Amino acid sequence: MKLIEHPDREALTLAVAQDIAESLGMALKTRERAVLCLPGGSTPVPVYKALAPAPLDWGRVVVVPGDERWVAPDHNRSNARLIRRNLIDEGAAAELVPLYTEGLGPDAGAAAASERVAPLLPLSVLLLGMGEDMHTASLFPGAAGLAAALDPSAPPVLAITAPAVPEPRVTLTLPALISATDALLMITGPEKRAALERAASLPVEDAPIRAFLKGLRVHYAK
Ligand SMILES: O=C1O[C@H](COP(=O)(O)O)[C@@H](O)[C@H](O)[C@H]1O
């Protein structure tokens, strides 16, 4: 893992947007379409707005959320909605492949999402977020379904139920996420930085971010 510390959150935002744009540009040189996997949550929102005007052939980019809360696409906790509003509606004319399917529950919905995500693999560029509990995507420590999602033979998407989160989730699984040609993590605040340092010495079941540390570029600002 390579930690890149930025002087403030504005510098972090610009650096992460530039890093993703460069990585996508490289991917578009060798693939007909590049697949960009993005987190939800609050941390990446300014990055999506900064990335939207990047001069990329967005029509050849497919965006997929790394995880989803099992809520309707217009719900304010929907990760797809967050990505659509802050990246695609801001000018990045990429195709968004959602993980949520109307009318299905999380288990059947994860199976349906797996069929949509499988043809997109390997991912070209993966941006990860992380919680202070060391979860990434919706790979939460202590979650029902975590062992299955960490299994190397897992399907691309599985349902997961974590204690202390308000709704069921679906998540890209470890094999789908680590298929990425290029991966970066963005974190803010000393609590997340300390959690990331702790993760390196914990079992992956207690600190799922640990599964991604090898070769990861970590962008950080206080
Ligand atoms: O619940 C989630 O949390 C993580 C971290 O979110 P943040 O608000 O602390 O930035 C996020 O990466 C994940 O996609 C999201 O569903």
Describe this structure in words.
- The protein has 222 residues and is α/β, with parallel strands linked by helices.
- It has one domain (2-221): Rossmann fold (3-Layer(aba) Sandwich).
- Helix content is 32%, strand content 19%.
- The protein has seven helices and ten strands.
- The chain has helices spanning 9-30, 45-51, 79-88, 106-117, 146-150, 174-177, 190-199; strands at 2-5, 34-38, 61-65, 67-69, 95-96, 125-128, 157-160, 169-172, 182-188, 217-221.
- The strands form two sheets. It has a seven-stranded parallel sheet, sandwiched between helices. Strands 4-8-7 form a three-stranded antiparallel sheet.
- A hairpin with an 8-residue loop joins strand 7 (157-160) and strand 8 (169-172).
- Helix 1 (9-30) crosses helix 2 (45-51) and helix 2 (45-51) packs parallel to helix 3 (79-88).
- The site of the ligand O=C1O[C@H](COP(=O)(O)O)[C@@H](O)[C@H](O)[C@H]1O has 12 residues, from loops.
Strand content: 15-25%
Q: Could you please say which CATH topology applies here?
A: Rossmann fold
Task: Quickly count the helices.
Answer: 7
Q: What is the annotated CATH architecture? A: 3-Layer(aba) Sandwich
In the predicted model, the low-confidence regions spanning at least 5 consecutive residues are: none
Order of helices and strands: EHEHEEHEHEHEEHEHE
Tell me the span between the first and last alpha carbons.
19 Å
